Amino acid sequence: MTTTVANVSGLTITPDAGTRPTIVAGQTGVNFTFRVTNSGNFADQVRFLAGGASVTITGPGVISAAAIDVNGNGVIDAGDIDVKSNGADVLSASIAQNGHVDVIVTVTANANANSNATINVRLGDAAGGSPTFDNQPADSSANEVRTASTSSANGLREARGDVSTTVENDAELRLDLTAPTGPIALGSDISYAWQVCNTGSRAAQPITLINAPLGANIGVFIMARFR
């Protein structure tokens, strides 16, 4: 007796309710990365809808780019497959059983975004809650990500992933200068005290400014003059 195993489709998108480090108002080039996994028992492709419909955002931000990361280097570059401005549906390359592709969504935070606002990015729109919005029967919804093969016993499958981040105040540097109260005797030395404070909500990272090549004056320079 011979038994033939039927093709069974499956699709998973992670993370579910994921997070990424906080961003600040006006920040550009913020990447949200999703992993799309073929959880079926045969090689299949994944369909992303035309016009970037498979990628959505809520909160004070806009999607500037979205692509399948073909070379897997974690950034959108030449050779990656656009799934934001695609005029027609896009099919991924064939994904082996338990194989995956990564999708990178790049976001710009609004310049006037309020502190503590939440930005949420979604890939797909399967209903339910984690983990039930993976491997659902596809229903041709408006923001779907679904399998492509029509030869499976259980039909097309869809899934959804989402990642959130919080807008925070940027680092805000303040330079305080203190000096002794006058009057100061003519010809005497005056001792000044300098204090740099970060009054923002984000840590300020140290930067070494180097005037190289000579005369380039590359960087940010703070100067004070006293008389």
Structure description:
By secondary structure, the protein is mostly beta strands. It has a domain at 11-168: Immunoglobulins (Immunoglobulin-like, Sandwich), CATH 2.60.40. The chain contains no helices and 17 strands. It has strands at 11-14, 18-19, 23-24, 30-38, 46-48, 55-58, 61-68, 81-82, 90-91, 100-109, 118-123, 136-137, 145-147, 157-158, 161-168, 173-178, 193-198. It has a 5-stranded antiparallel sheet with strand order 1-4-10-7-8, with no helix packed on it. Strands 2, 3, 6, 11 and 15 form a 5-stranded mixed sheet that branches. Strands 9-5-13 form a 3-stranded antiparallel sheet, with no helix packed on it. The termini are far apart. The mean pLDDT is 88.
Q: Could you give the topology of this structure?
A:
Blueprint: E1 11-14, E2 18-19, E3 23-24, E4 30-38, E5 46-48, E6 55-58, E7 61-68, E8 81-82, E9 90-91, E10 100-109, E11 118-123, E12 136-137, E13 145-147, E14 157-158, E15 161-168, E16 173-178, E17 193-198
Main attributes?
227 residues; mainly beta; Immunoglobulin-like; 17 strands; 35% strand; elongated
Summarize the structure.
The chain has no helices and 17 strands. With 227 residues, it is mainly β.
Strand content: 25-35%
Which blocks of ≥5 consecutive residues have pLDDT under 50?
none
Biggest sheet, open or closed, and with what strands and sense? 5 strands, antiparallel
Mean of residue pLDDT values: 88
Span between termini: 101 Å
**Assigned CATH class of the domain at 11-168:** Mainly Beta
- The global form is elongated
How many runs of DSSP E, i.e. beta strands? 17
